[in-house]
Amino acid sequence: MFHIAEEKKKLGNDDYKAQNYQSALKFYSDAISLCPDCPTYYANRSACYMMLSNYTNALNDARTAARLDPAFEKAYVRIAKCCVAKGDIIGAEQAIKKIEELDPQSNSVNAEKSATQQLRQLEQTVQSNYDAKAYRNVVFYLDSAIKLAPACYRYRLLKGECLALLGRCDEAVDIAISVMKLDSTSADAIYVRGLCFYYTDNLEKGIKHFELALQLDPDHKKAKEMRTKSKTLKDMKENGNVLFKTGRYREAQSVYTEALKIDELNKDINSKLLYNRALVHSKLNNLRDAVADCTRVLEINDKYLKALLLRARCYNDLEKFEECVNDYEAAVQIQKTPEIKKLLRDAKFALKKSKRKDYYKILGVSRNAGEDEIKKAYRKKALVHHPDRHANSSPEERKEQELKFKEIGEAYAILSDPRKKMRYDSGQDMEEHDQADIDPSHVFRHFFQFGGGPGGQSSFNFEF
After folding, report:
1. End-to-end alpha-carbon separation of the chain, Å?
2. DSSP symbol at 218
3. CA-CA distance, 280 to 272, in Å (whole number)?
4. pLDDT category, 55, cuts 50, 70, 90?
5. CA 327/CA 323 separation, integer angstroms
6. Which residues contact 115 (CB under 8 A, 6 or more apart)?
7. In terms of DSSP H, where are the helices of 103-202?
8. How far apart are CA 143 and CA 139, in angstroms?
9. Distance between CA 180 and CA 158 in Å, rounded?
10. CB atoms near residue 137 (< 10 Å)
11. DSSP state, 386?
12. Which PROSITE patterns would you find in this protein's record (predicted)?
């Protein structure tokens, strides 16, 4: 039986040297079946498993070899290598210590000694950066650790967690799923998968994964915290939406504000909460606050169309027409619908109108002012700014009053003429001669000489 086992080992060695590791594995397993108490066979199969990156089985075989022969140095070398690959620093250090006891002059694990020292230092650096929430740094140092310990699930899953916290959920999901394929009962892997759902606004699935992680490990602190946070955020978001739909805007605003404090890293959910709060602000006519919230949304996601359209509408109501046009132009780039194109045309038209003189503002009347109101306003302002009233003022003051008097006359000439007023109100360009022909003094004289006062009565009289 031993002779046949040795033949199997020899065939395994030949295949190992030829890098036919799967075939070698079979021969070593056959040898072990024939002689299960031979430490060399386990050590050889351990080496084979290592070449196949199956460090768990490799470590089991190396430990079996060491148990069968406590003085088998090569078995401890295998243990040290496997422990380093799996990120088990204590296990590696114990194996190295045993080798040094067996042969104080041995240099067979110098590389593993160096690796364990580096891993200890990296783990301390990783922990300090994690505590400081410097997740990018954590990922950087973990990449170095993973090069030394490629089979360490702990390092890979911590990297996955930090990637999720950084919003790089696609990469985090790949890590979680790759570990779950190898170990479907890994609470840490399921926790990271739950984080990815949570940070992509799928709170329901996130909660389910956190609960599953807790079933596998009831003491999983992070899963417990995230389950509580997810449920709280879900409840507050839904409550805010109900309050908004029932018109209880101030209460909704308060709920959304509190919900935004729960997790500043959850950009997907926070962008929706901010947009919802912006809607509330717009309903309460807090337009500047609505713009501020929409701006924060767009800083998170510059393709958030609803926020872009809402901010454009608020800018329009605030008469910030250039900003309104800019937002609608950005919206058209995202979605070229007839509705958005029309909004853009209307905004450009409003911008064009805003750059003309605002005759209503010059006279100090509203856009729906009637004929008598316009006359009253003109009479009052014309008397205040008439050049004769400021004959004794400084040259600068006289010039300023003359300009105002001219604008008032121009405004009255346009708004008191039904045809010109209609064209002005409709946004049409006023022909240059419509304004160039206006003599403010002529308008003034005509107004007071021909009954321009309210009710058609002439009533010009300066009070110096």
Report:
1. 132
2. T
3. 12
4. very high
5. 6
6. 84, 92, 148, 149
7. 110-131, 135-148, 153-165, 169-182, 187-198
8. 6
9. 14
10. 16
11. -
12. DNAJ_1, DNAJ_2, TPR
Show the tokens assigned to 39.
């430490």
Q: Supply φ then ψ for residue 432, to 5 degrees.
A: -55, -40
- Residue 342's CB is within 10 A of a number of other CB atoms, namely 11
Residue 380 has pLDDT above 50, yes or no: yes
Tokens 């454009």: give the residue.
Answer: 312
Residue 447, exposed/middle/buried by CB under 10 A (0-12, 13-18, 19+)?
A: buried
Q: Token pair of 19, please?
A: 């890098």
List all residues 6 or more positions away from 459 whose beta carbon is below 8 Å from its beta carbon.
379, 448, 453
- Backbone φ and ψ for 394, nearest 5 degrees, come out as -65, 160
* Residue 105: CB atoms within 10 Å: 5
Band (430; pLDDT cuts 50, 70, 90): low
User: Which residue in the block uniquely carries the two structure tokens 């009233």?
Assistant: 389
Q: Which is nearest to 48 in space by CA: 20, 76, 67, 75?
A: 20
In this structure, are residues 318 and 287 in contact, taking their beta carbons and an 8 Å threshold?
yes
Closest CA to 407 of 455, 364, 451: 364
Q: How far apart are CA 381 and CA 383, in angstroms?
A: 5
Which structure tokens are listed for 224? Answer: 């417990």
Structure tokens at 132: 């400081």
The predicted-structure confidence for 207-229, as pLDDT tens digits, reads as follows: 999 999 999 999 999 999 999 99
- In 3D space, the residue among 64, 86, 85 whose CA is nearest the CA of residue 76 turns out to be 64
- Give yes or no for residue 450 having a pLDDT over 70: no
pLDDT at 359: 87
Average pLDDT of every residue of the chain: 90
CA pair distance 17, 13, nearest whole angstrom: 6
Structure tokens that stand for 217 in this block: 């490990």
Average pLDDT of the residues in 42-56: 96
Tell how many helices (H) and how many strands (E) occur in the chain: 25, 0
Q: What's the whole-model pTM score?
A: 0.74
Both structure tokens of 125: 């650096």
Distances in Å between the Cα of 343 and the Cα atoms of 142, 301, 329, 330 are: 50, 22, 10, 12
- Whether 73 contacts 96, CB under 8 Å: no
Q: What is the pLDDT of residue 377?
A: 87
pLDDT at site 181 = 94
| DSSP for residue 301 | -
